[in-house]
Amino acid sequence: MRYTFGTTKKAADRLGDIARVFNPMAVEFLRKYISVEIETALDLGCGPGFTTDMIYRALKCKKVYGFDNSKEMLKYAKKQFKNCNFLFHDITNFPFPVKADFMYTRFLLSHMKNVIELVNKLINELNKGGLLFIEETEDIRTDVDVFEKYLSINRGLVASAGATLYVGKILSAGDYNAEVLYNEKTSLAVNNSTAAGWFYPNTVTIWEKEKYVLKSLSGEKRKHISNELLRIIKENGESSNITWYMRRILLRKKDG
Fold this sequence. Notes:
It is built from 9 helices and 7 strands, in the order αβαβαββαβααβαααβ. The chain has helices spanning 9-33, 50-59, 71-80, 115-124, 145-160, 168-172, 192-203, 211-216, 219-235; strands at residues 40-44, 63-68, 85-88, 100-106, 126-142, 179-190, 242-252.
């Protein structure tokens, strides 16, 4: 698999900023709905390790592993989070090198093909009665013109690789070989300058290399979007005109 938004140091820093906003909401869910003792946990597509560390702190499990197929991201993760274990592994390759009682994935399935089939394969990698917690974007709504333009291009970019940016809509109706403990949509409003800070780096890195973007936008239009995002960042205002709608699914492997 290929992570559409890059694996550079800038990409790692961007994921760290995103984690600071989304992790607290995930921790609240984990502590509320995960009541069984977890000995071994897996963070699928761990990137630079911010979600792996979140799982370690939230669940207090004995062993936490992060899987990623980017050596660059794993290097950042190993340097920062010494209490976790990080392994170079593509989650589409089975069987896994580690069996676990709990798996977590966020913003990963939006880069994958055949996601329902993949989720069912992930369930098979769990120990008996194991849990899989999924958090993926179902929609992003905004009335800010530059945000709409940015998101439109990114939807097309992800689609050009055969995946679906708003994969939560597909996952919500999935037929899973597991007990569905939770399947709900939740929302999170994000400050405009924060969202612009997440979007801007892609416009000056991957957007300059991806064929889909280069065909879809002239250099002048790419620069305009980039400059508008930078302006919102510098304004550092308190307005929030963009909301993420997240699909949360908690699955438990059947005993049989």
